[in-house]
Fold DUF4399 domain-containing protein.
Amino acid sequence: MRPSLLLAAVLAALPYAGSQAADPSPAPENAQVYFIWPHDGTVVNGGKFWVRMGLRNMGVAPKGTAVPNTGHHHLLIDTDPPPMTEQIPNDRNHLHFGAGETEARIELPPGKHTLQLLLGDKDHVPFKPPVMSKKITITVR
């Protein structure tokens, strides 16, 4: 086999890093992630608004930080939670706050939207058990 074909075969066999299965990191049973703002049912005038994220019984740390019981926020917009044993996708429906942010200004088009927070570990994988907020609905006018 030519070296270039061998390399192509090896690369094709490697899993995609964005959806790689992983062992979830353990989370304390009493850990909670929640919205400080907005609240369920909030009506936002204009498309830009602040999302403020809270966390109890764990710490917030940037991605890649290997400290037990710490993670970073992910905001799920108009989507269901991803598989709990894979990295959280990074797209317009799954916003990553890997620098350890606890608030962010986002913009959504007019209409009803669902928001949910999911805490990811150093590798963007949900904890076990998942540290996830309830799903809320907001309306943008």
User: Anything to note?
Assistant: The chain has one helix and nine strands. Helices lie at 3-13. Confidence is low (pLDDT under 50) at residues 1-19.
